[in-house]
């Protein structure tokens, strides 16, 4: 199979990517160029799917911080769904437990999508941007089905367990990611 015939599906754990970028000082994640980032990861291979998986911020009455976070997340969704980004956004939810918010339904949606895509032969290689080890059983299964899995992690906080279970892994550094940060947009 020629390089440009290889079908790539990119699966981004949005919360995971957000916190990793923030750790690196890349703050403007609303205007991050997710499409160019995905194309860069795909290299000269056919990019056939880009999915972004995230828990939706719900607002509470009289919670200005929550309302601001929701507004910012809505701007992110509009950006991801725009014609220049062309992402599919899969939404879970956030649940509050003992004052701490936890994402629910996001990892399951991501795992189901990588499994369904493998079973239905929709891609040859799944590129997974997440450090969540809950995905390992799904990763193992899609490899059994003859698909390859590329783990994209971050040099400052890699997931050793994911690296041990994928076909290939790549750890990114800040300099590689800054080209997608669209710094000019932070002024608007």
Any overview of this molecule?
This protein has about 190 residues and is α/β, with parallel strands linked by helices. The protein has one domain: 3-Layer(aba) Sandwich (Rossmann fold). The chain is built from seven helices and seven strands. A seven-stranded mixed sheet has the order 4-3-2-1-5-6-7, sandwiched between helices. Strand 2, helix 3 and strand 3 form a beta-alpha-beta unit. Helix 4 runs parallel beside helix 5. The mean pLDDT is about 90.
Quick overview:
The chain has 188 residues and is of the alpha/beta class. 38% of the residues lie in helices and 27% in strands.
What is the secondary structure topology, with strand pairs?
Layout: E1 7-13, H1 14-23, H2 34-42, E2 46-56, H3 64-81, E3 88-97, E4 100-104, H4 106-119, E5 125-129, H5 136-144, E6 148-154, H6 160-165, E7 168-172, H7 174-178
Parallel strand pairs: 1-2, 1-5, 2-3, 5-6, 6-7
Antiparallel strand pairs: 3-4
Helix pairs in contact: 4-5
* Overall spatial form: globular
- Report the span from N to C terminus: 45 Å
Low-confidence stretches: none
**Mean pLDDT reading:** 89
Beta-strand content = 25-35%
Estimate percent helicity. Answer: 25-40%
Count of domain modules: 1
Gyration radius, rounded:
17 Å
The CATH topology label is Rossmann fold
Q: Which strand order spans the largest sheet, edge to edge or round the barrel?
A: 4-3-2-1-5-6-7
